[in-house]
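Usage

Read records sequentially. Each one opens with the input sequence:
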Amino acid sequence: MEIIKIRRIKTNLLFCCVVSVFPAHSATETYFDPNLLMNGTGIDSSQINLEQYEKGNPISQGTYNMMVSVNSQTVGERDVNFAADSEQKIVPEFTVAELNALGVNTSAIPAFKNIPPDQNITNLAEYIPDAFVSFDLKNLTVNVSVPQIAMRSTSFDILETDLLDEGINALTLNYFMNYGKTTQSGNSVAGSGGNDSFFTNVNAGVNFGAWRVRTNYAYNYSRGESGNSSSSDFSGTHIYRAILNLKSTFKAGQITTGSEIFESIPMKGLTLASNEQMEPGNRRGFAPVVTGTANTNATVTVRQNGMVVYQTFVPPGQFRLDDIPSGGTAGDMEVTIEEDNGSKRVFTQAYSSLPVMLRPGTYRYEISAGEYDGHLTEGSRRQRFFLGTLSYGLPENVTLYGGTLLAQDYQSASAGIGLSLGMAGALSVDGIHARTTIADNDYSGESYRVRYSKSMLSTGTSFDLTAMRYSTKDYYSFSDFNNSGYMLKSDLAPWLTGRARYSFQTSITQSLKEYGTISLRATKNTYWNEQGSNTNLSVSYNTNIKGINYDLSYNIDRIKTDNNGWPENRWVALNVNIPFSIFSNNATVRNMSASYSFMRDNNNKTTQQLGVTDSAFDNKLSYGIYQNLNSDGNQYSAGTNASYNGDIVNIAGGYSYSEDSQSLSVNMSGGLVAHSDGVTLSRTLGNTVAVISADGAESARLNGNSSFDRFGNTVVPYLNGFNANQVNVNVDTLPENVTFKETAMTIYPTDGAVVKRKFNTKIGYQVLLTLSPAGKQPPFGAIARLNNTDDDINTGIVGNHSQLYMNGLPASGEIFIRWGTGEQQCTVRFNGIDKIETSEQVPIRMLDIPCV
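and closes with the structure output:
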């Protein structure tokens, strides 16, 4: 926004003038002759007090709005107080509470013990070795540098519950609505006949303190030649909350159990289970212990897949790092030891993991009780049960896990072990023994599972997860037991209730570097009953040649036929995408692309499609057209579609036609939050959200593209629970008369919270005042202050040619200007600021006025 840019330019020029005249650093006390500065201006040089600059200070004491960065990461604009340190130099200072808000782990640093939160710190190095604070007046930036070892993890630390925000009492709602109409040949889309369908889905939630209530409602309506039908249903209704002291989550209602040890079980009941998100970020998931030896005070840096994931300082001698953040399931670690003399040593720590694996000394548990609530069959036993599981991390990268499931006529127990095998990858082996009684017949059987994961960066090969399971003939899972003897619901695939005999799944990716990537995903299941086997396979090759993307794939799946059969379907497909930007940088075609796809199945049927897509309005609007040609009698079809992703709603629609039918579809989705200040509309919400308010900020935007409504509210629709979430204002979108006192904030929500926060704003006009010769002539550097009754301090500095820039001015008011020893002063009385016209060429208000 031009106004913001002009404000920064003028402020920068002002500080540059000060810096150029008065050196920022001086080895000895220096005397400046004011006559050199004011020579020829007609201003008495004795009015100018340069004592502070004789100490090497380029700035006066006071509070200034500065951009703040921590370890080179911008955290937004904040009011920073500048004060004199022990050497009488003017430096930025922060309170202990402000340092904590910037991410410094003050609670874990001994030097901060017994220091009150409001105490100002002017020399950070006295408390944290190697830390320092600097400021860049040219760019109006304060830089805070703190060793990573003294910084808090960006993820929530359970010991610092004061940072957590449970949120406000609120109602959240997501909605999705779809309407479709199909007509056969001879009918128009707008005419009578054909088939109509309407579907709506609503996810609603209520937050009350730490408690969350969630439910889902679906309504389906259809009308056709065979008549009308409708259905509606509530599902997934449950309550939950975090139990911070236990690092666990309690749930009750229509929920499901975990799936790492036993199969996931749909149930009506309650559960208490570990929540790994409540652990500090460097204690989540599995990562191997890294050991080594440092010869001096050294810096140890750990990289994974080329990215720095951990860095710390270690003293001379052996070190052991057991708090490295988890990097997923694979990717060997590169460890660099840099001694204080600059020498470096590098070694590789093999790393592969599986979902069951934990760090040494950590555990994960689940306790559940309720009744089975599956919906695959027309009714079921709905047997009540108790389930308990426990996993524990042992030294040497070993994890033991197991559990039990108890119900009337069904008992099972599981045990397993997970191992990190170093360069050989990660392996887990487990088994379940189950005893079942069905119709007075007793069954006893076992199910065994082996899982493996390995990433080989040197060859570009990744075995993301390969698993094999074998179940004996008399083994029944708890779902098998509850569904046995009941009829499968119509329109469901018959193998969904098949008793598994053997299953295999794998996911393999091979990078060919500049030649593309090959990937394989496959599953195969066989069954003890009459379902035979079921195979799913996808092999694809993807590459990009001179900006054109090619994707060739071979697939095996099953397809439903009109007589409710499910034959195996094999097909090969080629997809080509050509962005028009490779031909021209013209803005008209920058976002356009053409696509071609070809598909051929095992019945020699082919389908070809040619399409063109484009976008507009900063990619909010997407649209395209396409043409299909099928081999069946050379049948063709064509259509068009469009979608708009707005701030508060997503709308999409499409129309297609063929020789014998036409179809039209429209869908809309969005969300809303009802809170103490009203109802705020939003895009589709995640589970954890924030309502952000700012007075007078209508149409301003956050960097996540949420915009403030006319009530000054907006919703951040996606936050990560138990993590640090940064919310930033896009300063280029601010209204002309609004200035944010700070442009960033950090939020630590609990899972499912609706957090409400407010940005403080300064509402007023930006004005460049030229002090006319009719009044007093304050010298360069004189301090101006708006006379206002609130706590907002609005100041400025007189620059060259008796010009004074200030923002946040009301339509009328008074400005006091003081200089010298503080006894010299004058007053500017102004009114009618709101009536001064601006333009794109001159977006800032100009005013000539005397200071009397």
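Summary fields computed downstream for this record:
- Residues 612 and 742 are 44 Å apart (CA to CA).
- Residues 1-30, 187-192 have pLDDT under 50 and may be disordered.
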